[in-house]
Structures are given as structure tokens and as C-alpha cells.
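Researcher: Quick sanity check before group meeting.
Model: Go ahead. Protein one:
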Amino acid sequence: MSCICVDAMGGDEKPDVVLAGIEAALATEKGLSVIVAGNDEVVTPFCAGRERARALVTTEVIEMGEHPTEAIRTKKDSSIVRGCAAVRDGEADGFFSAGSTGAVFAAASLGVGRIAGVKRPCIATALPGTTGRPTVLLDMGANADVRPDMLVQFAQMGRAYSRVVVGVDDPTVALLSNGSEDTKGSSAVVAAHTALAALGESWFVGNCEGTDLLAGRFDVIVTDGFTGNVALKSLEGTAKFLLGELKSAIGDSKRAAVGALMIKPALKDLSQKLSGDAYGGAIFLGLKAPVLIGHGATSAEAVKNGTLACARAHDSRLVDRIVAEVA
């Protein structure tokens, strides 16, 4: 039975949304238990009537706009810091939060700790593909500046995640660049290509371009955190623009409004796929236990998926898979 610690105070929504997601996760997975971290008036009443829920009462909350390292240093009794400590101390098998990505990353790096030999943890998520083949993108923002050997480890960790979460037996890896040729890209990208090619592994298939992110051609696309974050935000911004333009067009025509009702389920499904909520949000790879982060403007469904994804990552021994890949 997995035990996942969930941050009830994280995110832009009220804690009731997080609690509803936890309730849904418990109802879905009978073998799951949770530790709910947060203010006394939020977590204690919720856990009181639920056999598989235990309250972790905290007195501080890290807000979205706070400086991550300063926040975890000064707010040691926050739900994020105490939640990561619960994982470190063996009380929980994983941690999920929709709070500040930077604060969760900092608290988890210090509290949960890195896998031996991992130079830098990174953030990964699965993107939808036009072929129906999801693509794991990493790093999504944890490390703006990286060395070639770090990108090699990101690729190895991404392969482990693709195996466990997406279900790919032998994932392929491509390096994000501004062209598919081996010589394309900045000096850092060229150096990373050289390092990946030097492994002599058939799973590294060379460079790819931004148009490949949603093409479903590769199982894993690896890049530095600066580029990955810009790429992901560009995709999200484009999706919002297209949906906004569609809504505007619908308002100009009754016939378009009727058509919109017909395609609304498909648009909602597309939005959820791009958000990463279907896979529980983004995961920090390279830590000693699964740590997942959801969107700040999260939903009960996203919290449910994140909690269950964290449990599945533990049960499927994702950390052990990463250790084997990196070794």
C-alpha cells in the first residue's frame, strides 16, 4: 500500500479543491493512504472521518510569489517543507503539491534528497502527440544552465520515466535544437549531441526541432531547463490563443455556436492533454522518492491524477529504474 503526502495548501484555488481531489483518489485506489499537510482547520476535519487519511498539521504557507530558497529557509513549518520531510523520514512514499514549483523543487532537493550519482534533478512531463504517441519533455525549467553530462543523465532519466509512466519498452531520445543536422545548434547543444552520441546507444536518434514536440515522433525529447520552459510556455500560450480566437468566432455566428457545442468535449480533452494533468502534472526526476507538481490553477481531477500518479511511480519502482539507467 502506497502512502502519499499531499499539500492541501498549495495552488491558487481554495484547499477544498485539493481535498476533493484527495477524496477522489482515495475512492479510486483502495490500496492508497494519504497524509494531508496543511493548516489545522483544513486537514484535521477532513482526516477525522477517513480511515486512510492522516493529518499533518502545519502552521505556515509558502505563497506563489515568494522566493523559493528564502521561503523554505524561513518557513520550516510550511506544508511544502514538512511534506518533503515526511517523505525523507519514511512516513510517506511520495509528495504531491500544486504550490510553487520553485519552492517544491528546493524543499524536495534538500528534504527528500538526490539519488546518488545524479548531478541535477530535472522536471519532466508527457506531451500529447498527433500520432497518439506521447513524448516526454525534460528539463522543463529546473536547470537553466547545464553541462553535456547533465543532459546525458536527463536523457537516461527520461527513458526510465517513459518506460514506467508511458509504457514504452525501449524509448528513443532526441535532442532539441534548431535543426535536425548533427552540426546545428548552439555550442552547448553541439557539445550535448557529441556527449549523447559518444554513448554509442541506439536509443539516441539525434537532433529534433520545435515542430517535433507534439508530432509524436520521439519518446523522449531532452533539453536544458531554459529552453524547455520557453518551449512549454509557448505551446500553452498558442493553445490559449487558438481557443480564444475560436470563442470569439463562435460569438459572431449562431451556426458556429452550434458547431462549438459539438466539438467542446474534444477541445476540453486537448486542453487537459497539453496541461499534463492526465499524467498527474510534472514530476521531479533524480530524487530519492517521487515528487510531483501540479498547476497552480489546479482542479480536483488534476489533484486526483497527481496523487495517483505519485503512488504509481512508487509502486512501479521508478526511482530504482532511474538508478539503473544512470548507472
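Researcher: Fine. The other one?
Model: Protein two, sequence then structure:
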Amino acid sequence: MSTILFIKASPRTGRAHSLAVADAFLEVYKQRNPDDRVVELDLFKTSLPDLDAVTVQGKYNIMHGREYTPEERSAWSEVEKVIELFKSADKYVFAVPMWNFSLPYKLKHLIDVITQPGYTFSVGDKGYEGMLKGRKAFVAYASGGVYSPGTPAEAFNFQTPYMDFWLGFIGITDVVSAAAAGMLGPDKDANKAKAVARARELAQEF
């Protein structure tokens, strides 16, 4: 039995295109894998720990074997809880809308919290190495515009490249996606239908 962590990075519900694509993926996945468990992490309903002065000081004191205060230990423990939740999954589903050509700030907050040396990546003689190898991810993207590869508009897309880079950095290289692009354009319904169909197809073998 596998555990999927479903990370919702959109505050919208009924009109969230990324969530609609992710839901279509999970509907098929659950039909084919009824014994697997899906854990939802709604980033706009979750209070993530702040990486403030106390937390960061606790991080470095603990990591380097220096003395730390109870307050620092408590603050860093909150970060570790989020990391362990993330690492407890075998597979990941992300619903990611494009905000200002990149990611919603809540998702970036999660990324900053869990991307920590010794927890999700290591640094050795060969440089950086991701520690979450052997896991899979599906990413449902949505964007108001169309940023097709090979077009001038591609240069404005910091959403997909960043997700691909970050997932690979922590060791997750088996990544598939479906994108509902052009959601502010005249072809939005057709484009969304294609993304949903693609998500359902990918879920067959995920």
C-alpha cells in the first residue's frame, strides 16, 4: 500500500483549474489503487512554521552540535514535523496555479521549510544529492496564459521549470504533469479538457 500526499497550492475551490486537473488524476488513481491512502495538505488552510530568527538559529545550533535553547529546539521541531509529513509519502500530487509567472507563495513557503540539508538532500564530495529517490510526483499546472516551449512566451514561465528543478534537487526525478494553460483565453474550455484527459491517462500507470 502506498501513501500519496496531495498538496493543494490554490486557495480557490470550485473554480480552481489546477485542482480540477489534480482531482481528475486522483479519481482514476483511486479506482485503480483502492488500497492506497491519500493524505491532503491544503497549504491555504495549514499554518506552516516561520523560518524566523529563532528557528534558523535553532537549526544551525542543532545541526552543528552547539548548545541550543528550549525555544530554539521547539521551533526547529515544528519544521521537522512538516519534513517528516512530506517524507512519509511514497508519491506526490501537486495542484499548482501560476502566480506572477511562478509559484504561489504558500507553496514556496513549504519548499523552503522542507528543503533542508540532512533531511531531503545531502552535500558530499559529489556535491548536492537528493535523498527522496525512488518516489513519484504528478503536477497539475494551471495558468492564465500559454507559455509553450519554443515560443517567446516560454521565457515568462518560472512555474514549471522551478518545480522540475526543485523536485529533482530533492531526488524526485520520476515526474509527470498535465497543464491547463490559457485559462484566461478563448480556448480555455478545450485546453482544460485536454489537461483533464491527460491527467486521467497518466493516472493509469502512476
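Researcher: One line on it for the slide.
Model: The radius of gyration is 18 Å.
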